[in-house]
Design a protein that fits this description.
It is a single chain. The protein contains 18 helices and 16 strands. With 527 residues, it is an alpha/beta fold. It starts with a strand and ends with a helix.
């Protein structure tokens, strides 16, 4: 069995654009614990008040699987262990396990710490020996281990022996600069194992795009504890990505590390940490990204419908993901049939409607539409083509005004709209922060008295792309809108040479999708 050591809350927060509140860190720790991960490194209590507060609060949280670890460094050369403030903060954290980082590369000893090699060995030994009186597990992070070994293998080995003699329970071999190649890492681990019998762990960074590969190779060499972060977040190019390492080990190599139910939560934890970091999920992440099991080419879709193994290396459900079939100008009949089944629509390869829908998609994409990122618009298109769509309202007209009254003032936007629902006409106006926002406010204001469920819809994201036509400001634009309610999110698209018209198309599809979804839900309950 390989143990997993998560350092999202310490090393992960060193990534650019990431900052977690104490509440965020508590919630993330609880979620990581649900996976069945063995260790959660909560932070460095000697470095900032936020981490001190975290350790105080996490003691009141009932974690089921993970042991909380505090992180710190070896004592300063000007202090003894018993009067070093950093070590005192670790002891005050009142956790059961602690990880201490020390220098393994001679250049860091002489040029960064400015001490003798012998003094560094004493510091490593004395720090670990001192902390053994307070913690049931004391781990040693051998910082820059691989760079140090390449530069001065004898001295680097001496630093590890100092950690062993001090009573460390495990040594983590750290590729801190993230530049070690797999063949180098493999060789160095073998050399270390000849002289160090203590259990070893691995900690890699991704500066050479090798963090996951190096972690896997370390396990193949007998290392049985892997450090990493959710989504590979970390300083510079990031740390080893646990969302890839865990399924690599468990599903590919049949090496147990967490319960199977925890593996099935990997996509959930990936998106949860993204949400806490207020960052958009990266769709091309292996295993957990939206695109990981997504198929676009008609030939691929046809094969996947017969046997998913033809273009999928695992079943997406094993990591909590799902298969997605896109529709585009590369789509074939198989794509249309798959999406029809997904939407609960009856369609066959022999049905003329199938060919008509496929032709319609290709024609629209030639105009600049893109349905692979707007599945809600595509579902509406299919329902309309099959006569399975109810028209909820009719536009009688709209007008959008932008007015700038003074040079130093923001332009004023107002939208007026007239719609018809059954035989009732609604004429209303609304203002907004811009023309699209004003139009969105106006159509909602007009429709909500007929369809109050639209109050649940929130516009989450709005993207505009100028399509390459060489016409400058008169070029067509594609508008993609992401909307959501309490249950799900959906994407819609509009294309026009007029940005307001393109926005209108996407806005209408968004609201109609919500109404269509409500109708389906009512139908399912009554059925």
């Amino acid at each position: 069995m390989v143990k997993i050591y998560d350092t999202t809350l310490r090393d992960g927060v060193q990534a650019e654009d990431i900052s977690f509140s104490i509440d965020d860190k508590i919630r993330i720790a609880e979620k990581i614990d649900e996976l069945g991960i063995h260790y959660i490194e909560g932070g460095w209590p000697g470095s900032n008040p936020k981490d001190v507060d975290f350790f105080n609060r996490i003691r009141g949280v009932d974690l089921k699987n993970a042991r909380i670890v505090a992180f710190g460094s070896t004592h300063k050369s000007t202090f003894s262990p018993d009067n070093d403030p950093n070590l005192k903060a670790l002891i005050d954290s009142r956790v059961e396990a602690v990880t201490i980082v020390g220098k393994s590369w001679d250049i860091h000893v002489s040029e960064v710490l400015g001490i003798t090699y012998e003094r560094n060995l004493e510091i490593i030994h004395d720090t670990i020996k001192y902390l053994n009186s307070y913690f049931s597990e004391v781990f040693y992070d051998a910082e820059h281990l691989f760079d140090g070994f390449k530069a001065n293998p004898s001295y680097t080995m001496d630093t590890l022996k100092s950690a062993v003699s001090g009573g460390a329970h495990r040594i983590f071999l750290c590729d801190t600069n993230g530049g070690t190649m797999p063949h180098e890492l493999e060789m160095i681990i073998r050399e270390i194992q000849k002289e160090i019998s203590l259990p070893l762990g691995i900690h890699t960074h991704n500066d050479a795009e090798m963090a996951v590969a190096n972690s896997i190779i370390a396990v193949r060499q007998g290392i049985d504890c892997v450090q990493g972060t959710i989504n590979g977040y970390g300083e510079r190019c990031g740390n080893a990505n646990l969302c890839s390492i865990i399924p690599d080990l468990q599903l590919k190599m049949q090496i147990e590390c967490i319960p199977d139910e925890g593996v099935k939560k990997l996509r959930e934890i990936s998106r949860f940490v993204d949400e806490m970091a207020n960052l958009p999920p990266k769709k091309h992440r292996p295993y957990v990204g939206d695109a990981a099991f997504t198929h676009k080419a008609g030939l691929h879709v046809q094969a996947v419908r017969k046997n998913s193994k033809t273009y999928e290396h695992i079943e997406p459900q094993l990591v909590g993901n799902r298969r997605r079939i896109l529709v585009s100008d590369q789509a074939g009949v198989a794509n249309i049939l798959y999406k029809a089944e997904e939407f609960g629509l009856k369609l066959s390869a022999k049905d003329q409607k199938t060919r008509e829908i496929l032709k319609r998609i290709k024609d629209l994409e030639n105009q600049g539409f893109q349905f692979e990122g707007a599945e809600a618009s595509f579902e509406l298109l299919m329902r309309k083509a099959l006569g399975k769509y109810k028209k909820f309202f009719t536009l009688m007209g709209f007008r959008v005004i932008n007015e700038r009254r003074q040079d130093d003032k923001v332009p004023f936007s107002e939208a007026t709209i007239m719609i018809k629902v059954d035989d009732k006409v609604e004429h209303t106006a609304a203002v907004g922060d811009g023309p699209v926002n004003a139009l969105d406010n106006a159509i909602r204001k007009a429709l909500e008295k007929f369809y109050p469920q639209l109050r649940e819809v929130k516009l989450i994201d709005y993207k505009v792309r100028v399509l390459p036509a060489g016409k400058g400001t008169s070029s067509a634009v594609r508008v993609l809108i992401e909307s959501g309610d309490k249950e799900e999110r959906w994407d819609t698209v509009g294309v026009s040479e007029n940005i307001i018209q393109a926005s209108w198309q996407a806005l209408v599809d968004s609201l109609e999708y919500k109404l269509e979804k409500t109708v389906k839900k009512i139908s399912q309950k009554s059925g």
